[in-house]
Amino acid sequence: xxxxxxxxxxCPWCFVGKRRLEQALSAPTASTADVRWRPFQLDPSIPxxxxxxxxxxxxxxxxxxxKRMQADLQQVGESVxxxxxxxxxxxxxxxxxxxxxxEWAYAEGVQDALAEGLFQAFFCEGADIGNTEILAAxxxxxxxxxxxxxxxxxxDDGKSExxxxxxxAIRQGVAGVPFFTFDGKHSFSGAQxxxxxxxxxxxxxS
Length: 206
What we know:
Helices cover 52% and strands 12% of the residues. The chain is α+β, with helices and mostly antiparallel strands. It has a single domain, classed as Glutaredoxin. β5 and β6 (186-189) form a beta hairpin. α1 (12-25) packs across α9 and α4 (96-107) packs across α8 (159-171). The protein starts with a strand and ends with a helix.
């Protein structure tokens, strides 16, 4: 089964959705899935050097709402084995480089490992995943050549492809992430409960 996930690397619900999909796929009756992470930028206007994480969220949602959202996410995260550490996050990065890296990782067969590394680094360690050195280190941990990744990130290699896929997702009606598509037949948005993933997988004959 082919599963496409439109996601942004700074989206906490995308991390939760990853865990819930994994729960469904771990069932004895579930078949092997080819998971493909697709790019989406929640805020492409963020400058290349990033911006203050908390300030950007407060400006958008307000301080009270941000505290409530983060508290809710920490509870949800604990239920799926994620230890969100929003207090450690200082920079909100422009995510185009992390998406370029995910595209290269898919070609090397390590995309899911890289996606996990990016989510863990950002949400659990507070790492700046817009930083080239940090991205290269995450890539190495996922089995890629860190030196080659570093060199490619210093060019525009893959930027146009990421932008094209982001635009395509918007044209297809993706308004929020995560957005899951199963074998091109069934799609839904949001980090739904694992039971929802299981029902979809069963209905498609996994």
